[in-house]
Design brief:
The chain has 172 residues and is α/β, with parallel strands linked by helices. The protein has helices at 17-20, 28-38, 53-66, 86-93, 99-109, 138-148, 152-160, and strands at residues 9-15, 42-49, 71-75, 96-97, 123-126, 129-134. The chain has a six-stranded mixed beta sheet with strand order 2-1-3-6-5-4, with helices on both faces.
Length: 172
């Protein structure tokens, strides 16, 4: 497996009432971690919070403002249930949106299930951190991550203002 994420530091945030209370094991967070590490990335922060907008906001702000993470992946809370507030919490902390990421995930996920239309996951930037909402199921989270894996190194280079980011755009 190609190690395309070797220079990227990740945070993985599971949003689940039951997992936060210890009533259910978090499966999606570890599945994302395993996929990231298999591609050479490093998960430096991992946590579980309840489906509470204020808790999600607090963690996202802290991880973006106080920690050196390049990408935060959230898993859970992106559906249409009344307690699914991850996109709203993410919007509250974003400085700029990156709508193509959510669009790409939904487009590819529609090939698997019509339920992908119900996903409200978004993506955007705070400071130099890219935040991406993924579904709560382990399968959906990993499949969604695999859709966006190819663009993550370039996105991180751009956020870091790395001169290598322009290598693919210069005229030959």
């Amino acid at each position: 497996m190609e190690k395309i994420l070797s220079e990227i530091c990740f945070g993985v945030l599971t949003v689940s009432d039951r997992a936060a209370k210890g009533e259910r094991q978090d499966v999606s967070g570890p599945a994302l971690r395993q996929t990231i590490e298999a591609h050479g990335g490093s998960v430096v922060l991992q946590a579980i919070v309840a489906d509470e907008q204020s808790e999600i906001i607090q963690v996202l702000r802290s991880w973006c403002d106080e920690h050196a993470v390049d990408v935060i992946l959230t898993t859970g809370g992106t559906g249409c249930a009344p307690r699914d507030v991850t996109p709203e919490a993410t919007l509250a902390v974003l400085e700029r949106s990156v709508p193509g990421i959510g669009e790409a995930i939904r487009a590819e996920s529609l090939r698997q299930t019509p339920h992908a239309m119900l996903s409200r996951g978004i993506a955007g930037i705070r400071n130099r951190t890219l935040i991406i909402n993924l579904p709560g199921s382990p399968k959906g989270a990993v499949q969604s991550l695999e859709v966006i894996l190819p663009v993550l190194p370039h996105a991180v280079q751009l956020l870091r203002e790395d001169p290598r980011a322009e290598e693919g755009h210069l005229p030959s």
